[in-house]
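chain below, 68 aa
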Amino acid sequence: MAMSDTLAVSLIGYYQWRNAQHSARVLQAKEIKVKIAKVYAASCGTYGSLRMTVALNGQGKKLGSQPA
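prediction:
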C-alpha cells in the first residue's frame, strides 16, 4: 500500500507536499524552537515562560509581552 493511499490523498498531491519549500514562518518557528531549547538547557531547565521570554527578547527575538 502506497503512502498516498494510507493518507487518502492523490499521489501528485502527496509529492507536491513532500517536495514543497518551507514558508518563512515555518523556518522562523524552527529557529525560535532551537533558541528556546538552548536557553532552557543553559538554565538547567529552571526557566519558565516569563524568564524564557525575557531571555529571548534580550537576544533580539521579540516574543510575547515583557513584564512591566
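The mean pLDDT is 84. The first helix runs from residue 3 to 7.
thats it, cya
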